[in-house]
Structure formats: C-alpha cells, structure tokens
Amino acid sequence: MLAGCGAAVVAISRTQADVDSLRAETDCQTILADICDANEARRVAEEAGAIELLVNNAGIARIQPFLETTVEAFDETIAVNLRAALVISQVVTRGMIARGSGGAIVNVSSQASQAALKDHASYGASKAGLDHLTRIMALELGAHNIRVNVVNPTVILTPTGDPVKGGPMLARIPLGRFGKPIHVADAVAFLLSDQASMIHGVTLLVDGGYQVG
Asked: Is 180 considered catalytic here?
C-alpha cells in the first residue's frame, strides 16, 4: 500500500521468508533483524536512514490463561510489541527533529488494548501500553510537527488465519465480518498522509463496531 502511494519503503522482519516474499511483491529495502533485542531495534532504526513516515507494526501474541502466563512470554511480548516501538521511534524522531522536517508515526495496536480478551494477558497489556505510549509521544512530539496516532484492529484474516476459531468474536462484530490486511493498510496510509494533517494522538478502531456491544 505505502509503496503504491509513492513511499520508498524500508521493511524490517526477523523472518527471511517474509523478507523474500515482500521483495517479490514490491520494490523496497529490507532489513533482517529481531527487534525483541533492544540493541537490534536501535541498530536497524539507525540503518534505515532518514525516515519521514514510521509504522510500528511488529507484534507477537503468546496466548496463555492469566494464571499460566509465564514471565518469559510476558517479557518477550512487551519487548516486541511495546519496547521496540519506543526504541525505534526514539531513533527516528531524533532524526526528524534534527532535520526540522516533521513527520508522522502510526503505531499498530489492537482492540485487545481496550476490550479484555480471555487468555490475552501479555498481549492485552502490551497493546494497552502501546496506546498510552502513543498519547505521550503525541503530547511531546507535536511541538516538532511530528504527528503520532494508533490504529486498533479487530481480528485480521491473514493468509494463515483460521476464521473458524474466531466464531465467538465474530458474533460480537456488528458488521458481521473480520477485517482484511487492506483495511488496516488503508487506515495507516490515511493517518500518514497530508489528508490527516490535523489528526494527532488519535486511537482509531478498525474493528467493524466490536466496541459498540
């Protein structure tokens, strides 16, 4: 989506197959790294160069009941879903400020940041933290003409997803369907664009009305 809008994309992944697939689909620069490691997150942000638009969309989900949630799963989830966004955004925004050019950031959260979902203790906590980190970033970075927003999707049907398992959740979505990757991409592209130049610090649900119920 962003490449199609004319952006020169730098994509980061820890999976070689994903990097290869992305290169086959579109013209972009790719960096292989595991941003669960804070030093790796900082390195790739620096390697990416002068970034004008940033999307923090790396995420993992360790689905465990609350009483069985392990420290290891919790720490890994926070590291990827929350800390990496902090570290990468710090590097990128320092560059934006030094250049005096402003910029825009979109963090990809989840409906699980606002609605309690069974077995999502680590994931929900990480995404709730990302929502609030977004608000603080918006508060502090607005003076530098850096806009920061967050999108909160419902279940998104990726090629490897299983729609059958999401039956109970689907029943709570007034539109009666799960999302597709394009729905998130559309929201992200809009928030990064000049058409959203006065939208700042917003939490944008992409959930088919899940929160209405």
From this structure: no
The catalytically annotated residue of 118, 123, 165, 180 is 123
Name the region of 208 (left: φ>0; alpha: ψ -120 to 50; beta: rest): left
Q: Which of 127, 165, 180, 210 is catalytic?
A: 127
Is 201 strand, coil or helix?
coil
Q: How far is CA 108 from CA 11, 84, 145, in A?
A: 15, 12, 20
The per-type count for the chain, helices as H runs and strands as E runs, is: 7, 6
CATH match for 52-212 among 3.30.565.10, 3.30.499.10, 3.30.1340.30, 3.40.50.720:
3.40.50.720
| Active site (annotated) includes residue 127 | yes
Would you state the structure tokens that stand for residue 40, as one six-digit string? 């790796």
Q: Considering the chain, what percentage of its residues have pLDDT values greater than 90?
A: 89
29 bridge partner residues: 10
Q: What percent of the chain has pLDDT over 70?
A: 96
Three-state DSSP class for 150? strand
